[in-house]
Amino acid sequence: MLLKAFLHDTIEYVDSGSPHGVNTAQAMLALLYAGQVEQDPAPLYRAAKELINMQMENGEFPQQEIVGNFNSSLFFNYPNYRNLFPIWALGEFRRRLVAKKG
Q1: In a domain, 10, yes or no
Q2: What gap in Å lies between CA 86 and CA 9, rounded to an integer?
Q3: What pLDDT band is residue 11 in, cutting at 50, 70 and 90?
Q4: Which is nearest to 19 in space by CA: 45, 58, 49, 41?
Q5: Quick check: is 12 in a domain?
Q6: How far apart, in Å, do the first and last CA atoms of the chain sit?
Q7: Which sequence ranges are marked TM in the entry (predicted)?
Q8: Which of 4, 34, 39, 84 is the most buried (most CB within 10 A)?
């Protein structure tokens, strides 16, 4: 989902049509740290599937839309976020699943 702002202080959420890797990974990490693995891991499996399907042949994740802004006017991009957050989320998910089974 993208946030779309207009000149007249109107803010509207619009569907981008596809999941965003960094945002999906950050949401996945939030669920992991909130204990979702112990409650119901189904949403985590769905998020992991989305991230795995995004991964390119060379192991990287695609560069998508800009994920950060400051003061509603300055947009910034951290190129390593596209790989950092999905790898972190998938690794943490695996670690917690193994710990739960062990």
Answers
A1: no
A2: 33
A3: low
A4: 49
A5: no
A6: 37
A7: none
A8: 84
